Amino acid sequence: MKPLFSFLVAGAMSLAAFSLHAQAWPAKPVRIVVPFPPGGIVDMVARQLQPGLQQALGQTVIIDNKAGAGGSVGSAEVSRAPADGHTLLMVFDSYVTYPLVYPRVGEGILKKLAPVTQIASNPLVLVVSPRVTAPDLKALVAQLRSQPDKFNYATTGAGSSNHLTAEYFKSVSATQINHVPYRGGGPAQQDLLGGQVDMMFLSAVLAQPHVKAGKLRALAQTGAQRSPAYAGVPTVAESGYPGFEVESWVGLLAPAGTPAPVIARLQAEVAKILAAPVFRARLEEQGLKGIGSTPEQFGQTLATERQRWARLVAERKLPLE
């Protein structure tokens, strides 16, 4: 009986330690690193979650913008942080796509971070500056084909999801558009609004105020169905390219080795915030869909997305490094 007794005691002690760790965290302010400049979708979602998380955790939640190298600067910093749940990373889909184009920079970081939850998703919207005269996607494609290399598109950086989405669109539409990479969504939007660049596959959330104000025109959205926030804008699939579907997303990660009860509580608290009717309605108005997936579900999403975009990088022979 002694081995069984010892096993039960060890199990009880482990459960007690597990519970104690969950109760003790957080013991100090929680820092959420946003690896992009202010003004992008990741920064926006982080700041919307900030008040609810502060209330739920009973600690100050600090949003810390650490931009550079397509998000790798901030991501690397979090990957080196203590795995105690007090330093977290909020990212979007470029977290998966950037290392495909810059494997030496990104691959090591991926192994040092653990999924917590996928927070939300939204389609990208193809928006054009006022100097682009095409009234719809069909007319734009005709212009692009008749004047190759005349038009350009902005992205949040080489290897970003809106970069690969644009390459995906160029592939299916047999068009040529010049790539102009930026260090984040905010600077890219500024030049798009100023007419320095012609178009961009921009997050539906970030595009919305500019489209409503008439400063940008939305020609198509990339989701499988139309977002309620863009009910009058057809999808790329509806516009003649069946099967075209891209969803942008925002997620939360922690340094690998962060205790499971800490990750579980983080996921649970984010899910509660997302489920609140007022918060959910605010997201929907912006074109976002709240998710709040488990760490396991988010991990599977990351793997699936990586496989999909790796195929595109190979097919398009995009430059690496």
TrEMBL record:
UniProt KW Protease keyword: no
Tell me if NAD is a UniProt keyword of this record. Answer: no
Q: Which Pfam families match?
A: TctC
Residues of the signal peptide: 1-24
Domain of life where this protein originates: Bacteria
Keywords, alphabetical:
Signal
Spell out the family assignment given in the record's similarity comment: Belongs to the UPF0065 (bug) family.
Which PANTHER family is this protein grouped with? BLR1237 PROTEIN, TRICARBOXYLATE-BINDING PROTEIN
What is this protein's record name?
A: Tripartite tricarboxylate transporter substrate binding protein
Q: Which organism is it from?
A: Azohydromonas lata
